[in-house]
Structures are given as structure tokens and as C-alpha cells.
Specification:
This protein is of the alpha/beta class. The chain is about 45% helix and about 15% strand.
């Protein structure tokens, strides 16, 4: 049993990083609905996924989903990515959910296949090895909130609007919402929000525990992004392998009984013992200096 868990919890090995990592390199890809930007200078280690489909308010259409899956596949093995932020390039909206106009043209069989792809996309976000943060500066409805729920942390403008509104469209959440919202808020409250299709402001969402932080919106409309970036900057100085293994321990441990969870934690801890960063952390404490972690 423990041998199987050890294999399942092993972190991925480094693979060739993205060819174009800088923000400037994305100018050539400005026509893409999903753009990837690796920050530099003191923010090195923070990578952003910019959702930029203004014509459809970042709705989850075929091209959008394909490009997002492609970006995640390239980034997930890149150990230079210490924190991944999901943000919007469309003012006033994070992600408006499913592209219902596109969906209307699909047959019943095609709808089933596409929703399965959406579910797979959210699972890929949830399983991303580095911490992920959703910066919600506007509407996050239906699949848009499901995308945010798949992230580890959520930051919202207090004026942002979010909700699993599928029942108001004759649907139910189909990309993880019925599973992740109860795990986030508890069963009874999740049922109330899903059954009613209620919309929440960022401030209300914070009061319920749906988002980690809610901030007053600024004139540029990107206050949540700036708070998410500040949160990412708090994560950057910490030991990368320890952070990643901590994420594995939490994610896997919360799905099992406490005894199995303790075993998972033990396996993760054992993987961290031989790392250079653990030795560096102890040396830095002994020498009374800031640690210099390298992710090894």
C-alpha cells in the first residue's frame, strides 16, 4: 500500500521549459485566447495564465479550452514555475462560464464529450504541482467559478460577482462544481448555493470562505490581480519542493480518513528529507540568515 502511494505521490521530474517564457514573447501571440507570461526580476518564479477572449467574456469555448490545456501541459513539468496565477485580460470579467452559443450548435453526444473535456481541464488545474491562484476581478459564473474552485487559492475584488448559476439555465454544474464547492464550504451551504443559483459578491464570498481575500476594486479594474501577485510573492521565498509536497499532502490527505492521511503526510515528509533545501533551511536557521532555496 505504502509503495503504491509513494509512487503516486512522487513529484514530476524537470522537463524542458517553455520556449518563450518572457512577457514580451507573448506579444506575437496576442491573437491567442490563452497567453502565458513568466515574470522576471523579484517576481521570477511567478507565471501568469492570461485569459483573453473579449468577444465572449472569456467563455469556455473549444479553442479556449484547447489552448488552456496546451498551456498547462507545457507548464506542469517546468520547475521554474513556483506559483501560477490565473487572471483575465478582459476588464470586468474573470470567466463568464460555458460558451452557450457554441454549446447550442452541438448535438447531445457532442455536449457530453465537451463537458467531459471541461471536467478534465479543471482536474488538470487542480493537479497542477505548484500553487495556483485565481485572481477574480469581475464575473466568475458557472464554469468560471468552477475554474477558480480548481485553484488552490482565490482572490476577488469585493465587487466581483460569482456563483454556480447552472440551475437557472436548466443545467447543473458539470465541471467539478458539485464536488469542489461542498469541499470548500460544506455540504448544506453548497447545496443552497447550487439549488438557488445564487450570485455572491466578492465580499460575501470571503465571508463564507469561498475566497481567501476580497479587496476594493481600483480604477484599472485589476485590484484582485495585484493582491494575488502579492500573495504569490509571499510564497516565492519558501522552499519550492516543500511547498509542492505540502500541496500533495493536503490534497490527497483530505480525501481519505485521518490514518491514511497521516501516512500520506509521512510519505511526503520522507521525500523532503534528502533535499538540499531542507539542509539549507537548517543551516540558515543556525547561521541566523535568510535561506537560499534552490528547489532541489
Amino acid at each position: 500500500m505504502l509503495r503504491v502511494l509513494t509512487s503516486a505521490l512522487r513529484l514530476p521530474r524537470p522537463r524542458r521549459p517553455l520556449q518563450a517564457r518572457g512577457c514580451a514573447a507573448n506579444l506575437a501571440a496576442a491573437n491567442r485566447e490563452i497567453q502565458v507570461c513568466a515574470l522576471a526580476g523579484p517576481d521570477q518564479g511567478i507565471t501568469e495564465i492570461l485569459m483573453n477572449r473579449p468577444s465572449a467574456r472569456n467563455a469556455l469555448g473549444n479553442v479556449f479550452v484547447s489552448e488552456l490545456l496546451e498551456a498547462l501541459a507545457q507548464l506542469r513539468e517546468d520547475r521554474q514555475v513556483r506559483v501560477l496565477i490565473f487572471r483575465s485580460g478582459v476588464k470586468g470579467v474573470f470567466c463568464a462560464g460555458a460558451d452557450l452559443k457554441e454549446r447550442e450548435q452541438m448535438s447531445e453526444a457532442e455536449v457530453g464529450v465537451f463537458v467531459q473535456r471541461l471536467r478534465g481541464l479543471m482536474n488538470e488545474i487542480a493537479a497542477f504541482p505548484a500553487p495556483t491562484i485565481a485572481a477574480m476581478d469581475g464575473f466568475a459564473l458557472g464554469g468560471g467559478l468552477e475554474l477558480a474552485l480548481a485553484c488552490d487559492l482565490r482572490v476577488a475584488a469585493s465587487s466581483a460577482v460569482m456563483g454556480l448559476i447552472e440551475t437557472t439555465r436548466g443545467l447543473l454544474p458539470g465541471a467539478g462544481g458539485t464536488q469542489r464547492l461542498p469541499r470548500c464550504l460544506g455540504v448544506a451551504l453548497a447545496k443552497e448555493l447550487i439549488f438557488t443559483g445564487r450570485r455572491l459578491s466578492g465580499s460575501q464570498a470571503q465571508a463564507l470562505g469561498l475566497v481567501n481575500h476580497a479587496v476594493a476594486q481600483n480604477e484599472e479594474g485589476n485590484a484582485a490581480y495585484h493582491r494575488a501577485r502579492a500573495l504569490a510573492q509571499e510564497i516565492l521565498p519558501q522552499a519550492p519542493t516543500a511547498v509542492r509536497l505540502g500541496k500533495v499532502a493536503i490534497d490527497r490527505g483530505t480525501e481519505v480518513d485521518i490514518a491514511s492521511g497521516m501516512a500520506i503526510e509521512g510519505i511526503c515528509y520522507a521525500q523532503n528529507i534528502p533535499t538540499r533545501d531542507r539542509l539549507e533551511g537548517m543551516a540558515a536557521f543556525r547561521e541566523k540568515r535568510p535561506p537560499r532555496f534552490v528547489g532541489e
